Amino acid sequence: MNHVGIGYDVHALVAGRKLVLGGVELPHPKGLDGHSDADALMHAICDAVLGALGESDIGHFFPNTDPRWKGAPSRVFLEEAARQVTLRGGRLINVDATVVAQQPKIAPHLAAMKQNIATALGLEPRRVGIKATTNEHMGFIGREEGIAALAVASVELPE
Fold first, then answer.
1. What pLDDT, in 10s, does the model give residues 78-92?
2. What residues have CB less than 8 Å from 28, skipping those under 6 apart?
3. Where are the alpha helices (DSSP H) in the chain?
4. pLDDT in tens, 119-130
């Protein structure tokens, strides 16, 4: 039986942090604020996979109050989400995500992001979709105060 999950994550842009999206460090004067590397793209995908399993969100598995996850690469979170699928006898079918950012330009980095996410989830890159859009200069994203990501995941689970 196919199960679908949805994920969303958003982080503020702040000075003094690296900007990491999809496991790729992007050149930008600000980075995303958070306990881990604050990779909003990987966080949204993780929540989508966990949601397809009927689980709680990323914070349940990796609380931001736990010092073990301070500065952790979000790849670890995706690997755990994939492990949770396997533990349930399931198979991750695909993920699809959209990054919403006014700046920097995401398109030049999409292939590397796709490869990083596919590797972390144990998927072929063709089963990972990543797109990018702006917020047309509206709201906190349009004012370059933050970056958001949305994702869906499909998981085949035994009945």
1. 999 999 999 999 999
2. 13, 19, 103, 104
3. 40-52, 58-61, 75-87, 110-121, 139-142
4. 999 999 999 999
